[in-house]
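Why should sequence recovery work at all? Because a backbone constrains its sequence more than one might expect. Tight turns favour small or flexible residues, buried strands favour hydrophobic ones, and helices have their own preferences. The token representation captures these environments compactly. In the example below, the structure is given first.
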């Protein structure tokens, strides 16, 4: 039997029946699955069903495990990962508030391993501000929230609140457990988002960058054990847990923050869309619209990446992005050479569903020795992992 133990938490939602299939699949993948059920869950599915498919004892009570007075602690220590599926609104609320009044909630409070939850509930309960707030609290603490999906619900209504299928949850678990701690002890500086260059008291010149790509990079590096500093232009995204976050607004502010952090970093990855031009003069107050036309005088902003390339210290890995709408590879190669980069991520930002603001991206990775790797369209989170794999490889070769 595998040493890799997963605790499967099952709370009292109708979707508990789907957790049986999940437990079966996880067991077939070779994991040792220890099921912890709430009392309510046992009214929907018998513990014996989980025991039969996993071949492991099922725990329900804090008090009724003979010879195991500290069962919640031993379960939390043994688990490489805890997945709660289904996670009811009540269990999510307890987790968010740190309430520990049964075996499952107590085990979750004692857990130091990765925790994932698969919410399942009525759509109105899922939409409720309390549930939204509780899920945000959990995300900020690093709990991975899987789903829910939209579709027909057990209550007969349609909407968001369906637990993801066993297949999807299994993939999420495998992905999470496959993550290596191969960046432990490495300091990484990431930039994200677009800068804003003020025109007057209320207007600015900006771009469509949301920060999704840079935040995915920061999250990927942090999950692999790196110490991450994330410098970002304005965005509505929450910084990933454990990352040092430095919010900035203009290209000059980004330059200051980046230059003060760059020397300490072994790897610098610049995904930010920095404005290339800024107004020469910021007008006081609001520019009046009575005039027939308005001519703006713009000046070049500092090229932060070129500056970093010029002062790169031995062993440091410097990665830039190239956002292009034409002649992708030629332009990207020219940027790599001019800015003294170790890798450039060339993305064609005119491609449908990729580039600025989308969840997906399509990139070609270029290296100074002339090699290039064309990657298929994938999520920005997946692309971030691909980039980190290359960064880890380059850092390793320089040790
Ligand atoms: O934020 P998202 O919505 O997820 O979108 C992601 C993205 C499209 C913004 C991202 O994938 C991307 O391509 N980022 C780089 C955008 C860009 O500014 O490209 P560029 O080709 O203009 O600049 C080349 C490189 O120089 C970039 O690494 C940029 O950070 C850097 N640069 C540019 C200008 C400047 N003044 N200083 C810089 O450091």
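From this structural description, the recovered sequence reads:
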């Amino acid at each position: 039997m595998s040493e890799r133990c997963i605790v499967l938490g099952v709370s009292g939602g109708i979707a508990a029946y789907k957790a049986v299939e999940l437990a079966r699949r996880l067991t077939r993948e070779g994991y040792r699955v220890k099921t912890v059920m709430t009392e309510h869950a046992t009214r929907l599915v018998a513990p014996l069903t989980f025991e039969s498919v996993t071949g492991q004892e099922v725990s329900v009570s804090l008090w009724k495990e003979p010879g195991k007075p500290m069962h919640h602690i031993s379960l939390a220590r043994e688990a490489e990962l805890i997945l709660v599926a289904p996670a009811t609104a009540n269990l999510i609320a307890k987790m968010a508030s740190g309430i520990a009044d049964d075996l499952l909630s107590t085990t979750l409070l004692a857990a130091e391993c990765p925790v994932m939850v698969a919410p399942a509930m009525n759509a109105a309960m899922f939409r409720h501000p309390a549930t939204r707030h509780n899920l945000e609290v959990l995300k900020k603490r690093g709990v991975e929230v899987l789903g829910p999906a939209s579709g027909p619900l057990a209550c007969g209504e349609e909407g968001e609140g369906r637990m993801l299928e066993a297949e999807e949850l299994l993939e999420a678990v495998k992905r999470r457990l496959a993550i290596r701690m191969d960046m432990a002890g490495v300091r990484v500086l990431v930039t994200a988002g677009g800068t804003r260059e003020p025109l007057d008291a209320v207007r600015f010149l900006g771009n469509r960058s949301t920060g999704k790509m840079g935040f995915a990079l920061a999250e990927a590096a942090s999950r692999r054990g790196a110490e991450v500093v994330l410098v970002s232009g304005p965005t509505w995204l929450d910084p990933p847990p454990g990352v040092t976050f430095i919010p900035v607004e203009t290209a000059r502010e980004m330059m200051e923050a980046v230059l003060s952090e760059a020397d300490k970093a072994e790897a610098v990855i610049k995904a930010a869309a920095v404005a290339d031009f800024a107004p020469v003069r910021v007008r006081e107050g609001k520019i009046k619209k009575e005039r027939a036309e308005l001519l703006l005088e713009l000046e070049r902003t500092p090229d932060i990446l070129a500056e970093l390339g010029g002062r790169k210290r031995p062993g440091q890995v410097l990665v830039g992005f190239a956002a292009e709408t034409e002649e992708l590879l030629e332009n990207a190669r020219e940027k790599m050479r001019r800015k003294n980069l170790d890798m450039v991520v060339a993305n064609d930002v005119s491609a449908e569903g990729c580039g600025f603001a989308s969840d997906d991206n399509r990139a070609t990775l270029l290296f100074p020795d002339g090699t290039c790797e064309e990657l298929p369209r994938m999520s920005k989170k997946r692309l971030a992992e691909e980039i980190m794999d290359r960064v880890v490889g380059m850092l390793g070769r320089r040790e």
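A few observations help interpret the result. The mean pLDDT is 93.
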